[in-house]
Amino acid sequence: MITEIPVELSILSAGYCLHPERLTLRGGTLKPVAFPAGYALIRHPEYGPILFDTGYSARFFQETASLPASLYRKITPVVYREEESAVRRLQAGGISPEEVRYVVLSHFHADHIGGVRDFPQAQYIYLQKSYDAVSGLGPVRATKAGFLPGLLPDDFILRSIPVDEASAKRALPQGLPFTDAYDLLGDGSLLAVELSGHAAGMIGVFVSTAQHDYLLCADTVWSSRAFRENRKPHLAAGLIMSSRTEYHRNFERLRQLHEQFPKLRIVPSHCREALAHWGTGGVI
C-alpha cells in the first residue's frame, strides 16, 4: 500500500463535455469525443464519505447563461442529466449531502467544482495557490481560466482548509517520482502531490483500497493513452495551460509511474477507459 489506511473508492462521472480528441492527444481524431467529468467517492473508515472533485451540476448552465461565461459553454459543449450529479448519485447510494464532511478540490475549473454547493456541511481542501490563481480574476479572465466563481458557495472561505507549503507532509515510498506528499487528513490515508501545469496548484491524490493503489491525477492528462503511449496533447492545448514546463514535467512523472509501477491505477478525471475499467457504472 502507498497510503497507510485503506479506504473504499468509487470512480464516477457527472456529465461530459465534447472536444476534438486531437487537442488532448497528439495524432487523435478531429471529431469531437466525449470526456466524462469524473470525480471520486472515498469512503474513509473514520471520516465517512469524502469527495474528490464533483463533476458538473445543473448550476453550470445557470452560470454560463450570459456573456462572457456563455463562451465557455459554446467552446466546450456539455451534456448532462440531473440524475448524474454527485449529490443525486450519493443519495441513490444512501448517503445524504450532509454526511459529506470533506470535498477535496484538485483545481478550480468548472467541470471539477460544479457540484460543491450541494454539500452544505462539507469543508473544502485544496492547494492554496490553486485558489489564489483564480480568485482575483475579472469575468473575462475567469472565463478564459475555466473558473465560474458562482459555482462556489458564499461561505467558501469560511469552510475551507487550504493546503500550503507549511502543511503536514509525509514521505512517499522510494522509487516514486515524488519525494513527499501533503497528508490531507493527518492520518496517511489521502496523500496529495502537486501536479501543476494544466492549472496552477492542481493536485492529485494517492489513495489505497484493500486491493489496489490509485493515483487520482485530475487533468495531468486527459486519457490513459497519453502517458501509456507517450502522446502529449496538441501544441494548441498549451494556450490554456498555466505552465507548459510544469505540464511536461508532470506528464513525465506519470509515464515513470506507469512504467515503474504498472499495477498502480492512474485515474485521469476525463478518461473514458479508466472510468469503464475501474468505475462503478454510477452505482455506489
From TrEMBL:
Domain annotation Metallo-beta-lactamase: ranges: 36-270
Keywords assigned by UniProt, alphabetized: Hydrolase, Metal-binding, Zinc
InterPro entries, per database record: MBL_superfamily_lactonases, Metallo-B-lactamas, RibonucZ/Hydroxyglut_hydro
Cofactors (names): Zn(2+)
Pfam family, one: Lactamase_B
Keyword set includes Isomerase: no
Lineage top rank: taxon: Bacteria
Reaction(s) catalysed by this chain's protein: 3',5'-cyclic CMP + H2O = CMP + H(+); 3',5'-cyclic UMP + H2O = UMP + H(+)
Role this protein plays: Counteracts the endogenous Pycsar antiviral defense system. Phosphodiesterase that enables metal-dependent hydrolysis of host cyclic nucleotide Pycsar defense signals such as cCMP and cUMP.
Family the entry assigns: Belongs to the metallo-beta-lactamase superfamily.
PANTHER family for this protein: 102 KBASES UNSTABLE REGION: FROM 1 TO 119443, QUORUM-QUENCHING LACTONASE YTNP-RELATED-RELATED
Protein name: Glyoxylase-like metal-dependent hydrolase (Beta-lactamase superfamily II)
Source organism of the structure: Paenibacillus silagei
